[in-house]
Amino acid sequence: MPAALWIANVEVTDAEAYGRYAALAGPAIAKHGGAFLARGGRYVQLEGRDRARNVVARFPSVEAAVACYHSPEYQAALDHARGASVRDLVVVEEAAP
Q1: Mind listing the pLDDT tens digit for each residue in 12-69?
Q2: What is the pTM of this model?
Q3: What range(s) does the DUF1330 domain occupy (predicted)?
Q4: In whole angstroms, what is the distance from residue 56 CA to residue 34 CA?
């Protein structure tokens, strides 16, 4: 089964609340086999809307990433991001080597 990438583009509007989200989201993502590849580092916006926080995590599968999103742990974290950020989140299956 191919691995999957969880890609989030985020504009943080309340840093304190978003910090609470990040503190809880990391362990929830790890619990579901996710590992961060990029988390708010340097970037160059070439097309589309510019959101200063970009996060990429690799999961064992699309199903694992979606299960993480719907898990009670991640939803508890997400409660802190709602109203504290504008986000787009997509899960994309990796191409076969």
Answers
A1: 999 999 999 999 999 999 999 999 999 989 999 999 999 999 999 999 999 999 999 9
A2: 0.91
A3: 4-94
A4: 10
Q: Distance between CA 23 and CA 88 in Å, rounded?
A: 19
Can you tell me the distance from the alpha carbon of 85 to that of 40, in angstroms, rounded to the nearest whole number? 14
Tokens in use for 61?
């599968």
Contact in structure between 81 and 20 (CB atoms under 8 Å): no
> Is residue 91 within 8 Å of 75, Cβ to Cβ?
no
In a domain? residue 70: yes
pLDDT for 43: 94
Q: Residue 27's domain is classified under what CATH number? A: 3.30.70.100
* Number of compact structural domains in the chain: 1
**What domain range includes position 58?**
4-39+54-93
